[in-house]
Fold these 2 entries.
Entry 1:
Amino acid sequence: MRTRRRKPWDVLQVFSSDASQEKLYKQAIIPIVQEVMDGFNCTIFAYGQTGTGKTYTMEGGPRRSDDGKSLSAEAGVIPRSIKQIFDTIDASNVDSTVKVSFLELYNEELTDLLSFDDAKDDKKALRLLEDRNGVVVQGLEEVVVKSAAEIYQVLDRGTAKRRTAETLLNKRSSRSHSVFSITIHMREVTPEGEDVVKVGKLHLVDLAGSENISRSGAKDGRAREAGSINQSLLTLGRVITALVEHSGHVPYRDSKLTRLLRDSLGGKTKTCIIATIAPTVHCQEETISTLDYAHRAKNIRNRPEVNQKISKTAMIREMSSEMEKLRMELVAQREKNGVYISVEKHQQVQGLPKQATSHAAPYGASCWAIFCRALIGEQH
Ligand SMILES: Nc1ncnc2c1ncn2[C@@H]1O[C@H](COP(=O)(O)OP(=O)(O)OP(=O)(O)O)[C@@H](O)[C@H]1O
């Protein structure tokens, strides 16, 4: 095979096949979770060819050790982040609430992996809506958890529901994208004695396999499925290109994945990609494509901002206005006399300027961290 001379890929660190889950977590993820606790929104993507260890990196093997309490050596980024979050909360004795949600994107359809409404295993389909704070997933279940151990049960429930299908490359290959989100509300008292709430958010994204359809052996109905998965990844690639090249139009709206993760792509979030590869000759093409993809993303300039701290009074005011809006919507629906539109929404529709809501100064530098994890021996 002819090899081209090319520039090296700019990744922060390469983890070899025998690097432990603990090593990857300590060196790549701990600082990110710390930033979440400081009030930032952060996103970690696992991106790569099927069977190269994305799910292993994010979820890992058995989450608890034999004693049933501590983490097993195989535990991945999700359980380790959860443990770090609760350890930090316990050590600082801060009054906090931790909420999690878990969704799946499969064939451009969003599903709540934590919904209880799914008698007979019918997964609840979700819709994406735009509101003044960005994109929201309508009706997504947010589960309040009180301890790390409780989150493991939630995670187990969700992972069991993820759709999987067999391909030649990986028998239990996940054909869907999944997003596990953790939101932490932390109560603080300012030097002036005012009660405020600091919010941090962490999205942990396990993307579907990036390989092409013929290589993975997907056929017939499954080819359609693979096509749709590639459509989402293709749009993700186009969004990255548009952001890197500063194009006027960024095609976020072309796929649900990019709509959903819009803020993590050129937005206010700090973003990390773990590119998983199988460095064998057989997978050379995919490896190059994965590393090119991740490398390009590094040139995106994010503008991370600490989430604004919300005072108790402001929070109560916001919740009251939300309740009032819902009440008016309900009345309008019951009386079937039209649709209730809030003053703010009406002004938006009329093209009147919206009141500014954020005052934080934007960061200058790119906030993308790229890591690479290699897996040897699992590919065929
Ligand atoms: N670093 C590793 N050490 C040990 N085993 C690993 C490692 N990475 C992956 N594996 C194993 O390799 C197999 C494939 O990994 P995994 O399911 O995580 O791949 P994937 O990239 O998520 O695939 P898909 O795209 O189909 O979801 C699994 O059996 C997993 O346990």
Entry 2:
Amino acid sequence: MEFWSISSALLAIAVLAIGYFAYQLWLSPFRDIPGRLLYRLSPIPSRLDALLGRLANACEEDYYEFGDIYVTGPGVVVISNPDDCRAVLSTHKYTKNKFYQAFALIEDNIFTTQSADLASLRRRQLKHTFSHAYLSQMEPALLKRGILALEQRWDNLIANSGNPRAQIQYEAEFARMSIDVIVALGYGQSLHILGTSHEQVARWVHDYNVLAMVKLIVPFACTWPFSLLISALLKSKSEFVASVTAAANMRREQLQAIKAAGQKRPVDILQALLDGEDPESRAKMTATQVVAENIAIIVASTDIVAQTLTWTLCYIMLYPDTYHRATEEVRNAFPRRHIINYGEAKARLEFTEACLFEALRIRAATGVFLPRIVPKGGATFQGHFLPAGTELGVNVAGANHHQPTWNNPRRFTPERFLDNEKAKQDVFSFSLGARMCPGKNLALFEMLPTIANLLKDYDFTLPADALFTPDRLDTHGNPTVMPRSHRFTSVGPTYPDRDCQVIIRRAAEY
Ligand code: HEM
């Protein structure tokens, strides 16, 4: 009896499995879309790619193997054709998928929301924050906490090395700088008063990302008794929320004193969030919303700016002609003691800016796919009809390497952006349309002066034992680039301590 019930159960499972595989292979609406067999049959391979940090490599390599459209899981389709990507991203119709909800650890916010109304409301409330006018007012703080503090640190390292030079791990340097900048803008002056260090905030951001990932894999992880298993992460989140709340409260109190004394209001992200008003409804954000958005901004921006700067320096070092051309451009345009700001760099450093855009294109720190859901009525891409509810990945790496759009896309060629504003619009790294990165201008205000001033003020060389050098070519004849991994929301080097070493020396006076 027992034998028969076990074998019937096994038989039922076998029939179901065969039925499932037959459906995926011959009946599913995705059967004619290219893709790997295993990925078509099970979500596990692509989840493993994500878990093991292989997503960025997969996105780029799969584009080269399968082209504009491919299947990466049962009911999951990835697109790379720039026109298709634009069509999806330009509208709110293709909502973000549930991945983002895992990051809504305080409440739904500009980054996590699937609601077009909330996303649009926040953009209206924050429009002023990321405008060139407001960014220009924030720029002194940005330069002080960013490039000037970094140079001060590097000069100290050189001075303490007993040599005219020092060896640095630049990924860690950029990570430190970008957290300092966003913390300065998000907390204002209150950080030191609160007794919180920047390292502490970096740890909170890390834990926040880990907690979101845990919630993504185990949606009920935050409820008792499972929450006991992740109590350290939950404690870290509460501390993060408490510190951002305290900063906002402190600012509200300061404002009264500032007003009474007739002084100027502070200019930073915290103030912009407190002041942010929808010009249509006059709605402002509640106290909790201010905290949720401030944390969303801190989390969304920290790693990505650091990783973009890391890839930019990495590529410049692998292409000596590019390094010399950019350095020459900066040093010819500005005197040695001048601090280059964004407007000056934008106006006079076309090639240096092109290096940044080319790094954003060739190895986007967001170079995975942006997950969306096909709306009611379905949609057709590359001749394939995708029914409503299909998970759609907009492949940033694929679009950035799209072969008909980019000549020799695997080669780092900043020249492609010279006198070519349109080419910049074809880079998908900040996304575009309805949910485009609202921090793009802030990121550029931070990154371009950083690269420009560093090239002006330091000579860079790779250490003698560097593994990745201009003469170590890959199978395509281009310098081999250090390996990358996808972590949380950004793509960075897999072995930064090994691969991101560079020797810096103060540039001679000129
Ligand atoms: C190199 C730097 C940056 C890159 C490449 C980048 C890229 C992106 C991309 C691709 C998205 C779309 C994500 C998606 O749809 O899944 C995004 C969204 C977002 N970014 Fe950035 N970002 C950068 C810097 C920043 C900075 C500095 C801030 C903060 C001020 C910021 C805040 C945000 C926010 C709040 C969203 C969510 C917008 C929405 O969904 O409506 N980012 N970013």
